[in-house]
């Protein structure tokens, strides 16, 4: 480069701009998170997530079919569990006839090629609303890991392709890998929520599932938003314990973490464009304050540019429609 260099030459036409574009967003990068609830023929819009719904199983299958036809290859499932099925142990999380095993079987039967990802954590099942078992206000680590293992095995039995532990207990990746291998599920992959922060951006998701903690917060297991080096330690541990992919969550306020993790691992890196990030764009769009679709694409592209190979996003279907 010298002083006669004019960067605008490469921005002159759309064709040249396309030629030099460094990052692309593709429908192949997207994982579509979906909420499932009990009942029939019903979908309920999540108030704080316009355009996102809790689906009963029959309608969920239709939604997945539509998404798959648009080119989406993977979904992540989250259950809205009725209060009366919750207990302090989260036992519904490993009920072989529970919502998630039923959903896995129904979706696999209808759309065999879709990749199924299931969340491993106790919060939607736990009467305390925490990702782990609570005793005297303390979240128990090793006791929780034992239940998470039961949950993951139950999901594997029902046909999940990838388990995604989002609980942030210590040692869970190694425990899950060992148990899955021992039971013959060595082909079930682990997508580790490695750097998951104690974030206020999860608010709308907790509305969707009614899974907010009844007391306290998640700061003894989820990470401090102030820390980046700690994310590296979490990622290294998960990698050593056998994670197949690592995740950073939330995504938008943590692009630096995505970048750092991408620089220091050779595993695929996922980013979770979480519920609060989705809600902010939808709200500003509804107010007429921003062009929601353009902001959505720019936001997701920034995650790719930061290093994300995969993005979990409630926008998945909308993006797939736009990229057609
Ligand atoms: C819980 C879980 C959460 C999300 C995914 N799994 C919420 C939490 O940790 O409180 C949040 C996703 C989102 O906000 O979109 N294990």
Tell me what you see in this structure.
The mean pLDDT is 97. This protein is of the alpha/beta class and 324 residues long. The strands form 2 sheets. Strands 1-4-5-8-9-10-11-12 form an 8-stranded parallel beta barrel, surrounded by 8 helices. Strands 6-7 form a two-stranded antiparallel ribbon. The protein has helices at residues 14-19, 57-69, 99-110, 141-157, 172-182, 203-209, 229-241, 255-264, 275-286, 292-306, 316-323, and strands spanning 30-37, 43-45, 53-56, 74-80, 115-120, 133-135, 138-140, 162-165, 189-196, 245-249, 269-273, 310-313. It has one domain: Aldolase class I (TIM Barrel). The site of ligand PBG has 12 residues, from helix 6.
Order of helices and strands: HEEEHEHEEEHEHEHHEHEHHEH
What would the principal axes of the Cα set say about the shape? globular
Task: Give the biggest sheet.
Answer: 8 strands, parallel, barrel
Measured by DSSP, the beta-strand proportion falls in 15-25%
**What share of the residues lie within helices?**
25-40%
Count every beta strand, where a strand is a DSSP E run of 2 or more residues: 12
Which CATH-level-2 architecture? Alpha-Beta Barrel
Taking all Cα atoms into account, the compactness measure Rg is 20 Å
């Amino acid at each position: 480069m010298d002083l006669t260099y004019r960067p605008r030459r490469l921005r002159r036409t759309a064709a040249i701009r396309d030629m030099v574009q460094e990052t692309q967003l593709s429908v192949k990068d997207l994982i579509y998170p979906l909420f499932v609830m009990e009942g029939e023929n019903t979908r309920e819009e999540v108030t704080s997530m316009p355009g996102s719904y809790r689906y009963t199983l029959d309608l969920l299958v239709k939604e997945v079919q539509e998404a798959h036809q648009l080119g989406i290859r993977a979904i992540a499932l989250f259950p809205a569990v009725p209060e009366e099925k919750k207990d302090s142990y989260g036992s519904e999380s490993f009920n072989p006839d529970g919502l998630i095993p039923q959903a896995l079987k129904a979706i696999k039967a209808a759309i065999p090629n879709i990749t199924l990802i299931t969340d491993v954590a106790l919060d939607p099942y736990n009467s305390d609303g925490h990702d782990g078992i609570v005793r005297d206000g303390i979240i128990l680590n090793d006791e929780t890991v034992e239940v998470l293992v039961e949950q993951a095995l139950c999901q594997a039995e029902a046909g999940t392709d990838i388990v995604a532990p989002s609980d942030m207990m210590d040692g869970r990746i190694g425990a899950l890998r060992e148990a899955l291998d021992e039971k013959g599920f060595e082909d079930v992959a682990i997508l580790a929520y490695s750097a998951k922060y104690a974030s206020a951006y999860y608010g709308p998701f907790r509305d969707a599932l009614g899974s907010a903690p009844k007391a306290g917060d998640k700061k003894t297991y989820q990470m401090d938003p102030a820390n980046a080096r700690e994310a590296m330690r979490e990622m290294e541990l998960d990698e050593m314990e056998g994670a197949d992919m690592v995740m950073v969550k939330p995504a938008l306020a943590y692009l630096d973490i995505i970048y750092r993790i991408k620089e220091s691992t050779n595993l695929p890196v996922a980013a979770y464009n979480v519920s609060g990030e989705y809600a902010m764009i939808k709200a500003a769009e509804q107010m007429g304050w921003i062009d929601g679709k353009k902001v959505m694409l720019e936001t997701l592209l920034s995650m790719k540019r930061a290093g994300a190979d995969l993005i979990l996003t409630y926008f998945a279907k909308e993006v797939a429609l736009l990229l057609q």
